[in-house]
Write a structure and sequence with these properties.
The protein contains 17 helices and 15 strands. It is of the alpha/beta class. It folds into 2 domains: 285 residues, Rossmann fold (3-Layer(aba) Sandwich); 122 residues, no CATH class. The N terminus is likely disordered.
Length: 424
């Protein structure tokens, strides 16, 4: 047990420091004996965009993931520290990694790469249902998956997937059943989820900062769940995944991990444990309910805009009382509506009633959510609600950038019109 525990800690530590040393068997596709064209119940697809200075989770993922009678597991890996080599792997029943395709350098920030990977999996490893796991950075409504090295790169800036590109990739690939952002930060964003609501049934991500540590030990349980209960509904699966992530993360020994990172610097170790434990969030969203959310948000935004000059102080007070996430750039939308409902209940029935409607539709949309002790106001989804100061500090998250994103949420609601007047 001690040896197993030490290995697990080493793997988790490596995710945050340097790429993992390959410690799992790799076989060539010529030795692969699985029947590719026989359909299974599920296929898991990991989009391992590790092409950034940091850690690659491929070996940690293979340490847990495994294909089985009802499940295929594949991964597309684009590493940073081994440039010009990208690989599609099949993860076998014994956690072995089979190299199915080996490419030169690819761009994980190009929507065609995501689309083609999904199509490859669907064509060669068909299943009744599909889960996409995404690893890399995340930026809420701005998107995810930065790639620092890619073909025909003309400037020293990374490329990344906007949410419109994610939608295009999923649409052209025929959609998926569930998407899980297994490390990208801030992806439990209402605007981001709304953009791909027609491409997936369940959307899973974190409202706050995130990391693969949250998912460690859950991948093995997920594979076992899908194999043992292959006919599970995708909505029930969304709830089960949050339960797995919550239980495994809460049982992880962060104190031992902190020692390997900070050695004997006790104060830094304490700060690390408190930060990781406290900021932990993860939520599961059913996308078929997001249209109702947008309708309630539209009415809410119109009521907030009407008489804004008179109500500005109370709205700012509501914002200050709301659970702030992502350096004060996004706020929990349920919590904000709840604070507005409380402050305007007595003297503005328009804002009060529409705020209550937002709370109701959010409650119907969030399948399950979990959070750490410092995120008590995290109820599952965030919305862009910057202040003038944060807009100046984080220019890439300014109101102008928000407008230029051209997201469906902005076209379908009046939230951007409210923000324009609120920030003016």
């Amino acid at each position: 047990m001690l040896i197993k525990k030490t290995i697990a800690i080493f793997i988790m530590l490596a995710i945050f420091t340097t790429p993992l040393i390959s410690c799992f068997s790799t076989v060539s596709s010529a030795d692969y004996v699985e029947t590719q064209n026989s359909s299974k119940k599920w296929t898991i697809m990991l989009y391992d965009d590790a092409d950034f200075p940091g850690g690659d989770i491929m070996d940690a993922f293979a340490h847990e993931a495994s294909s089985s009678e009802n499940l295929n597991v594949l991964a597309l890996q684009d590493p940073y520290y081994t440039p010009n080599v990208s690989t599609i792997w099949y993860i076998g029943e014994n956690h072995s990694k089979t190299a199915l395709e080996i490419y030169d350098e690819i761009n994980m920030g190009d929507y065609t790469t995501l689309r083609d990977f999904i199509l490859y999996c669907k064509t060669n490893y068909p299943a009744e249902r599909y889960i996409l796991l995404v690893y890399n950075h995340g930026s809420a409504w701005k998107g995810c998956c930065v790639d620092y090295n890619y073909p025909e790169q003309t400037e020293p800036f990374p490329d990344s997937l906007t949410m419109k590109e994610v939608r295009q990739a999923l649409t052209e690939a025929g959609g998926i059943d569930c998407i899980c952002f297994t490390a990208p930060c801030l992806m439990a964003s209402l605007e981001a989820a709304y953009e791909i609501k027609d491409c997936t049934d369940v959307y899973i991500g974190s409202e706050e900062l995130s990391m693969y540590l949250y998912w460690y030990s859950s991948i093995e349980d997920l594979c076992e769940l899908l194999n043992n209960d292959p006919n599970i509904s995708v909505i029930t699966l969304g709830e089960k995944i949050i339960n797995l992530v919550e239980n495994n993360f809460k049982s992880s020994n962060l104190w031992d991990i902190s020692k390997m990172i900070y050695k004997y610097r006790i104060i830094k170790r304490i700060k690390y444990v408190l930060s990781v434990r406290g900021d932990f969030t993860m939520s599961s969203i059913r996308t078929d309910k997001l249209q109702n959310v947008s309708i309630s948000i539209d009415e809410f935004a119109k009521n907030l805009t009407d008489g804004l000059s008179k109500n500005r102080f109370k709205i700012k007070l509501a914002q200050s009382l709301t659970n702030s996430l992502g350096h004060g750039l996004v706020y929990d939308v349920y919590d904000f509506a709840d604070k507005c409902s409380m402050l305007f209940r007595a003297n503005n029935k328009g804002i009060y009633n529409s705020a209550e409607a937002v709370k109701h539709t959010i409650s119907e949309t969030v399948i399950a959510n979990t959070h750490g002790f410092s995120q008590q106001g995290a109820n599952g989804l965030t919305i862009f609600l910057p202040s003038k100061i944060t807009s100046l500090i984080f220019k890439d998250f300014s109101y102008d950038e928000y407008l230029q994103s051209d997201l469906d949420f902005l076209r379908d609601t009046s939230w951007d019109e409210f923000l324009e007047l609120y920030l003016s």
